[in-house]
Write a structure and sequence with these properties.
By secondary structure, this protein is of the alpha/beta class. 38% of the residues lie in helices and 18% in strands. The chain contains 11 helices and 12 strands. The strands form 3 sheets. A 6-stranded parallel sheet has the order 5-4-3-1-2-6, with helices on both faces. The protein has a 4-stranded mixed sheet with strand order 9-8-7-12. α2 packs parallel to α3 and α6 crosses α9.
C-alpha cells in the first residue's frame, strides 16, 4: 500500500524545500508519493486522493491553511495535518483542529522528522521488499485558463476573445481591484475604501457592495468562469491560475509582454495609479 504526502504552499521555493526534505527522509522507500499544490483548489483536488499526511502553509491567498485543513479533514478525518508557517501565533488555532504537528520556518530536516515520528494517525509502513527507488514528486496539472485579462491601458476581460458584459460597472471594478492584488485577498472594507473615498460614502455603500458582488458572480457564471472569484467569509480574491493576464505575465518576465506596457495600467481607475507609478519606475531602472 502506497503512502501519499501532500505539500501545500503558495511559494514555489517553500514547496521545493519541503519536497527535498521529504525525499531525503524517505530515500529508502519506493512506496511514497509526494503531491504538490500552490493553491487551495489544487490542494482540495489532491485531498480527494486521500493522502495520509499534509504539510500546509497557513497564510495563503484565497483560503488560509487553517480553513484548508478543515476542508481536507472533512474529506479524510484520519489525515495527519502538519502546519508549516513563519509565525508561531497560529499555534493555538492549529492545535484546536487536532493537528498532528506544527513547524516554524525556517526549519531543519530534524524538525520534520520529529513531527513525522509523532503523527496522530498511523500511516502505511514501508514494505519489506521495497526497492531503493527515488521518491516521486507529482506536480498538480495546472487548470485551464478561463479568462484573458487586459490590465495595460484600460482594464478589460475577455472570454473566447469576446469582452465580458458586466451589468454593473462597479462589479467590473471589484474584479479589476482583486486582479491587481495578484491572488492576495481583500476584505469588503478594503475594496470599498479603494472604490469610494469618504468613510460616510463607504458606510452608505455597504448594501450596494453586496449587490455588486452578486452581479459579479452572475457575470462570471454566465461565461463559465465562476471559479475565478474566491470568497471566504469577509474575504475576496481571484484564482490567478485561471487567468491569462498581461500584468501577471509581465511580472513573470515574459519577453512577449515587455513592449505591451506603455505607461498605462487600468487607467480608468484612480486607485490603480500607485501600481502604474511603480511599473513606470521599473521601466527606467
Amino acid at each position: 500500500m502506497k503512502m501519499l504526502i501532500l505539500i501545500v504552499d503558495d511559494e514555489a521555493a517553500a514547496i521545493r524545500k519541503m519536497e527535498r526534505t521529504l525525499k531525503t527522509i524517505y530515500a529508502e522507500r519506493s512506496d511514497v508519493t509526494i503531491l504538490c499544490a500552490d493553491n487551495y483548489i489544487d490542494a482540495l483536488a489532491c485531498g480527494r486522493g486521500m493522502p495520509e499526511i499534509a504539510f500546509l502553509d497557513i497564510e495563503m491567498p484565497g483560503m488560509s491553511g487553517i480553513e484548508l485543513a478543515r476542508r481536507l479533514m472533512e474529506l479524510n478525518p484520519r489525515l495527519n495535518v502538519i502546519f508549516v508557517t513563519a509565525y508561531d501565533h497560529f499555534a493555538r488555532e492549529a492545535y484546536a483542529l487536532h493537528a498532528s504537528g506544527y513547524i516554524t520556518k525556517p526549519y531543519l530536516k530534524e524538525d520534520v522528522e520529529s513531527e513525522l515520528k509523532h503523527l496522530r494517525f498511523a500511516v502505511p509502513e514501508a514494505p519489506q521488499t521495497a526497492a531503493k527507488e527515488p521518491v516521486q514528486a507529482v506536480p498538480v496539472e495546472l487548470p485551464e485558463k478561463k479568462l484573458r485579462v487586459q490590465c495595460f491601458g484600460n482594464f478589460d476581460v475577455f472570454s473566447d476573445n469576446r469582452p465580458l458584459h458586466f451589468q454593473r460597472r462597479g462589479a467590473k471594478e471589484i474584479l479589476a481591484y482583486l486582479i491587481s492584488l495578484k491572488g492576495a485577498s481583500a476584505t469588503r472594507l478594503e475594496i470599498c475604501s479603494a472604490m469610494w473615498e469618504s468613510a460616510e460614502e463607504i458606510e452608505q455603500r455597504k448594501d450596494y457592495f453586496r449587490i455588486l458582488i452578486s452581479a459579479l458572480r452572475r457575470t462570471l457564471r454566465q461565461y463559465g468562469a465562476e471559479e475565478v472569484l474566491l470568497t471566504s467569509r469577509d474575504s475576496f480574491a481571484v484564482n490567478v491560475q485561471l487567468l491569462d493576464c498581461d500584468y501577471y505575465r509581465y511580472l513573470e518576465g515574459d519577453p512577449a509582454m515587455k513592449n505591451q506596457y506603455l505607461g498605462m495600467f487600468m487607467q480608468q481607475y484612480q486607485w490603480a495609479e500607485n501600481i502604474n507609478a511603480m511599473l513606470s519606475g521599473q521601466m527606467y531602472e
